[in-house]
Amino acid sequence: MQFNKQIIQLTNEGLGIRSTARVLGIAPSTVIRKILAIADGIVPPRISNGLERIQVDEVHTFIQNKDREIYIIYSWDQELKRALSLAVGTRSKVNLRSVVNPLLSAEVVSINTDKYSGYKGVVPKKLHTTFKRRNNGIERQNLNLRIHLKRLNRRTICFSKSKEMLEAVLKIYFWCKSSKKTV
């Protein structure tokens, strides 16, 4: 409990597992266990009905090495400046649906995406827009992710070693700020 707030803060600042362990004076395995435990306790925010300007995009990265690519797919509310839903995995319709379906349940007004063909059949035509300028918010957030989380930098030797760890760090980054009451 005593390290959780610090681990959240250091993770949001972009420190890796070993750096966090050195700063806090604890073992890297303890940091990993605590990050996974903190992430398990995070509940994604409730999506309000009737939201407008929802954007969905994906970020390409790797697990362990450049041979194992993976995608971070998430929805972004431009007005509230927060992530609404998240999936980590392949760029498949199953993962796209896991991000889009909570939005559809909340009866959002519109969902803007890039022109990736996978969104056809996942996002209903009456809600789907593909205007490039309407995705500026999520594209900026993609840049923030790459800047703040070293494991997502384009030219780096720091990759997540597992999908679960990447997902845990993203949950902490998106939904657990150190200024709020934490686990």
UniProtKB/TrEMBL annotation:
Pfam families cross-referenced by the UniProt entry: DDE_Tnp_IS1
GO molecular function: DNA binding; transposase activity
Protein keywords: DNA recombination, Transposition
Biological process per Gene Ontology, one example term: DNA transposition
Family affiliation: Belongs to the transposase 27 family.
Function per UniProt: Absolutely required for transposition of IS1.
Protein name per its UniProtKB record: IS1 transposase
Source organism (scientific name): Fluviicola taffensis (strain DSM 16823 / NCIMB 13979 / RW262)
